[in-house]
Amino acid sequence: MKAVVYDKYAPNDDYKSILSVKDIPEPTPKPNEVVFRVRAAALNYNDIWGMRGQPVPVPLPHISGSDAAGEVVAVGADVTNFKVGDRVVSHSNMSCRVCEACTDGREYDCTKRTIWGFQTGPLWGAYSEFTHLPEVNVAKVPDSVSFDEAAAASMTLLTSWHMLVGRARIRPGQTVLIMGGGSGVGSFGIQIAKLYNCNVIATGSPDKLDKLKELGADFAVDHRKPDWSKEVRQIAKPFGGIDIAFDHIGQTHWNDQLTLLKYGGTLVTCGATTGYDAKTDLRHIFFKGTNILGSTQGTKAELEQGLYWMGKKKIKSIIDSVYSFENAAEAHTKMLTGKGLVGKILLKP
Ligand SMILES: [Zn+2]
Q1: Which of 28, 72, 210, 281 could hold 86 in an S-S bridge, CB 3.0 to 4.6 Å?
Q2: Which CATH entry fits the domain spanning 159-294: 3.50.50.60, 3.40.50.720, 3.30.450.40, 3.20.20.190?
Q3: DSSP one-letter code for 291
Q4: What one-character DSSP code corresponds to residue 256?
Q5: Ligand 1 center to residue 154 CA distance, Å?
Q6: pTM passes above 0.90
Q7: Alpha carbon distance 312, 320 (integer Å)
Q8: Using alpha carbons only, how large is the chain's radius of gyration in Å?
Q9: What is the 104 CA–ligand 1 centroid distance (Å)?
Q10: Cα–Cα distance between 163 and 269 in angstroms, integer?
Q11: What are the C-alpha distances in Å from 150 to residues 202, 294, 310, 349?
Q12: Name one GO molecular function term (predicted).
């Protein structure tokens, strides 16, 4: 079968110099695994880290890819929930399932967990014609959701669902500020908040503001403007302020988000794309009883909840472009530069 393989790290992000489509043996399922034919896979930034060998070296030779969707072609002897022909999508959070965190229902807090396609291998990731996963690491895809949409959703949908539903305990009618609404997690953040009938204020760069409204945001604000937080404050005034701030930007906009929260409000964060060394005015924390919550990935049940609403057409994936395995280097360069990028980039065999 075909797979996108590299056996050394890329100097200066020159992916073309390391990526090639190779012929490797088809997988056979272990007793607890399913094998599925990959119909679509989606790029994530951890592909870049993998090819750089930074911040952690990944097993070589390596197949990247943490999001894949397709149909089951073989099941192991102990598999109980899947059969040949089922449509599935990967749940790439591979936790140990036996530690205290896992058995407490917090698989995302498992210290032994690995991200499939990033830390797994050699030769175990989404960019291959067939792949294998434990049945606990695949979810059924509703009939009304295409493989492309499912692959584009998996990891980002999970992250956004866990942030708002699992961590911030979003409630109907709240006012939610989605930072960076044009990104993968941001676009799902907007849609999940609207699913809960919240007032949604989304921020983004000027070229993406129309897109944020198309996704359902009630208001869209250019967060590159120096007085962006004043604009948000004005908008949120009739609602009494912001209940939940959804962040993955970090440093540059951190403290402004804290000032916008109402008393007892919540800031939930899953990243820091502009830097981690943020200034915090602690008065906003203690006087206002602010909750600051960290969030990474989520549970398989949360992914399934998100997929359910995709099946009901209440949430959709945004797909930027589709590349063949042969053009994987070009696809990754596009993700790295981020120029004009809206939504996920897919790779297909
Ligand atoms: Zn565990």
Answers
A1: 72
A2: 3.40.50.720
A3: E
A4: H
A5: 21
A6: yes
A7: 22
A8: 20
A9: 9
A10: 7
A11: 24, 25, 9, 16
A12: oxidoreductase activity
Tell me if 295 sits within 8 A of 158, measured CB to CB: no
Q: Please, what are the averages of pLDDT over each run of 10 residues along the chain (349 residues)?
A: 97 95 98 98 95 94 98 98 98 97 97 96 98 98 98 97 98 97 93 98 93 96 96 97 96 95 97 92 95 97 98 96 98 88 92
Q: How far is the CA of 64 from the centre of ligand 1 (A)?
A: 23
The total number of residues written for the chain in this structure: 349
Nearest to 204, CA basis, from 184, 40, 160, 104: 184
Secondary element (H or E) of residue 42: strand 33-42
Three-state SS string over 134-189 comes to EHHHEEECCCCCCHHHHHHHHHHHHHHHHHHHHHCCCCCCCEEEECCCCCHHHHHH
Geometric angle at alpha carbon 340, from 335 and 346, rounded to 5°: 40
Q: Provide the CATH number for the domain formed by 2-140+318-348 in this structure.
A: 3.90.180.10
